[in-house]
Design a protein that fits this description.
Length: 382
């Protein structure tokens, strides 16, 4: 039997909640499930306001509008990330300025940010890779010195913390993803976390087609009309109903993922000591959420051989990302600072192992197969 790389978790109450959403007579967005999810996010993260969106990509696009990004503005971000981190700002005409990552966490290297700032820089977008927090204290201090906004791409970081503070609720704005590959899911889904209350009113308007409909429903204005640019960024109630079931289970989901993560981590320790690979590094102060488990192998050849050998045993492992600065669109619209040697090197060597709820029964097979594969030196290595 093959072991897939990911399997979307179903807790049990999701489909019942969806039936309830229909029974309540509201399938469009901003119904009672959406409100419950938003209150949960506000309470769990401490952000001033949370708005559900239909994806993290949508939340990032909203953040770029709220940041008032103008054509030619520059936004500092890692190259080692998903395309949406950059696309959201490129859609406003911005130039993504790619800065290298730290070799330990694979997060934006805070020591390299200041040298990348120019008079056109408007924002810094740290990505919390694998739910492991960036050095937010250092990044916020740089942003403050230079008058920049901090927009956390916390797509992978729901339920994760840095120095005890929930990720996504530390910068001015934060974005979460509930895509089926993330920890807490609704198929497609996301949220914008707003920590700077001055941005909250406009965020509601942008999310609702540029109208003041939310204010109208609260009785704050006497007619509902077009007041700003905007789009349709809110999810329907069916999505929120599914998501609410997952949020109610979020602590249990995170605990089970952490247990799977720890089992991998213990299993590969001897090979790390033997210099055969490198395991993830979790710096002090990072309460991670076990979003993913990766291994750093010796080189591209090793990784390709590993993925092939695992596949032959019916175990699906994957790699990511093609660094954005080296991708065709990234080369056209972006700027890479100093060649990004760490990004270029690690992107070739990283492999992700299956990590999903229910893997518990089959994780031993993944580990045994991986250890067997890695103990053999690849033939014709170099
Ligand atoms: C998954 C992911 C996104 C996109 O999330 P969607 O909800 O699929 O739009 C953005 N950034 C990062 C770092 C991600 O991992």
């Amino acid at each position: 039997m093959t072991i897939p790389f990911n399997k979307p978790h179903l807790g049990g109450k999701e489909l019942w909640n969806i039936a309830q959403a229909h029974a309540k007579g509201q399938m469009a967005g901003d119904g009672s499930f959406t409100k419950q999810c938003q209150v949960w996010l506000e309470q769990r993260t401490g952000c001033r306001k949370a708005l559900l969106t239909h994806s993290c990509t949508a939340a990032l696009e909203m953040a770029a509008i709220l940041a008032d990004i103008q054509p030619g503005d520059e936004v500092i971000m890692p190259s080692y990330t998903f395309v949406s981190t950059a696309n959201a700002f490129v859609l406003r005409g911005a130039v993504p300025v790619f800065v290298d990552i730290r070799p330990d966490t694979l997060n934006l290297d805070e020591r390299l940010i200041e040298a990348a700032i120019t008079p056109r820089t408007r924002a810094i977008v740290p990505v919390h890779y694998g739910g492991v927090g960036c050095d937010m204290e250092a990044i916020l201090a740089i942003a403050e010195r230079h008058g920049l906004l901090v927009i956390e791409d916390a797509a992978q970081a729901v339920m994760a913390t840095h120095d005890g503070r929930p990720l996504g609720a530390i910068g001015h704005l934060g974005t979460l993803s509930f895509h089926e590959t993330k920890n807490i899911i609704s198929g497609e889904g996301g949220a914008l976390l707003i920590n700077d209350l001055a941005l909250a009113e406009r965020a509601e308007i942008i999310r609702d087609k540029g109208t003041n409909r939310s204010q109208f429903f609260r009785g704050q204005v006497d007619k509902y009309t077009w007041v700003d640019i905007g789009s349709s960024y809110l999810p329907g109630e069916i999505i929120a109903a599914f998501l609410w079931a997952q949020m109610e289970e979020a602590d249990a989901i995170t605990a089970r993922r952490l247990a799977l993560w720890e089992r991998y981590h213990a299993a590969f320790e001897p090979l790390e000591r033997a210099g055969r690979l490198r395991r993830p590094v979790i710096p002090e102060g990072c309460g991670h959420n076990a979003h993913l488990y990766y291994l750093l192998l010796r080189d591209l050849y090793d990784r390709t051989a590993f993925i092939q050998a695992m596949k032959a045993e019916g175990i699906h492992c994957v790699f990511h990302y093609v660094p954005l600065h080296s991708a065709p669109a990234g080369q056209r619209v972006g700027r890479a600072v100093n060649g990004l040697p760490v990004t270029t090197d690690l992107a070739d060597r990283l492999v992700r192992l299956p990590l999903w709820l229910g893997l518990e029964e089959e994780q031993d097979r993944v580990i045994e197969t991986a250890l067997r594969t890695l103990e053999v030196e690849p033939v014709n290595a170099r």
